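Weekly sync notes, structure subgroup
Attendees: PM, AL, DS (notes)

Item 1: joint prediction request from the bench team. They want all two components modeled as one assembly rather than separately. Inputs as received:
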Amino acid sequence: MARYSFASIALMLAGVLLVTARDGRAEMAGSAGRASNYVGMLDLGNGDRCDLSIQVERVSFLLTTVANKYRLVRMLVDCRKQTGLTLSSTADRLEIAIENRQVPAVLSLQRSDSAVWDALDLNMRQTLAYPPAIKPNAPVYVFAYFPADQVNTMPARFTFTIASLGRAVTLQVLATAARA
Amino acid sequence: MNKLLDLVLGYLKGHPYWAVIEPFVIVAIGWGTIQLFVYQWLSASTSFKPTVEVFLGSYLSTRITIVAVGVVAILLVTRAFGPRGGDAPGPVGRLTAYWQQNRSWVVRRFIAIVLIVAAVAVGFRVYSPNRVSHITVRFMSLNDEVTPEALAYLIYELNRRQRNWYFNVDFRPFTAEMLTSVQAERCATDQRPQLCHALGLSGGEPFIGITAEPLGGAYFAENRDAVSVISTADREAYAPLSTYEYLAYCLILQAIVIHLDAAGALPEDAFTEGNVSHGDLFQFVPEKQALKSAMLAARLSPDQEALLMNEFGSDYVTASASLLTMEWLHGGKVRSNLESVFGAKVGR
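Output from the run, pasted for the record:
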């Protein structure tokens, strides 16, 4: 039976660690400043699906606000294959779960806070406006505004309700337990 | 022509006043020769063949005339302010003596020439073509016959056929949420909601919105200042022409309207309601089914050629006249690409 020196075993072990660390998820520490990724999936049937994700970086999320009133959240909606989504800023809901509370987001500042909305320039309004639809294979960012005075800690999860489907999808941090 | 000119010159040379009029005759012959040369150059270098009347009324002809008048003015001024017999200039090289003897004459001539050159420069400026602006096209909503990518390709092909300006395509889907609350409220009650939305989206810049919704105040397109909106809601009126042909025609027409409006040169009677029509580009279409007729026989009238040439230059007229024929769309690569790559139906 071949005998291996301590140095060669250490070298092999380091190699294994390097290979497993390539996807950036296997580190045992160093995630303190990293954004939390809340993800959810909407199964539309027949293999069609929409992936939803929200990245929240703790420091910028808790320190920055829109007009000292709102915390801004950006949700990526990516629908694959054939089916898109029809959205409505009046009927859809995005809620944040914090300390056993559900805080709803404002999806249309134009209606809810026209003073803040009207102060934005045209280009910014076009970027931030709630989209009427998500087309397949055309990922879109959806922006939502949470009252800053009610959201002062990191969210546990988000719940997005799409009225046209009559369904809700929960977005949670991926593999929380695996993180150190 | 040359023989006639020789005959006239021979006649004039036999008279004692020939020495006086000789410089002016040379200027007149130069003026005519340059006019002829520029007319021939314009006809040969572009597909635009202006009539003699259109050319003589154009900024090119006017500029040649301005230069000729300037040269004549300089000739007259230098004679009027010429040195008296006793003040003949000294030999060349004795500059100081020459300056002392003719100071007043030199200064007056110099000032007069400067004024004439300035006047010619102002004339050139006044009779210059205007620069045309780029125009943003926004797909506010599209009917099911049209896809954004195919329409964008059509617009890029339009851009490829002109050099001085282009359409920018803004692919962002439109929602009334993008407007300010004041604009949204106003548009909700406006009789022309699509034009209202387009005005809100334009930000005051040249803009054409394409929508599948009815316009409210018009059938096909409407314009206010630098903003136009084109509707495909009346598809039955332009069928069997395809929506791509219809949109290409409307985009070209509305671009011309926006450019003319920006230059303050849109004819006052443009699109004035009436019961008769001869298919003019800026005429109201009394019967909406007759839009097809106007599209298929689209052309620039001599008056419109003159107007566009003087406002925007000969390249603009050439491009507009060529685009309006739609031959670029029906023949060759563009139609083939639309049908084979984008699955669009252009033919009939």
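Discussion: Chain A touches chain B through 15 residues (CB under 8 Å).
Action: AL to compare against the crosslinking data before next sync.
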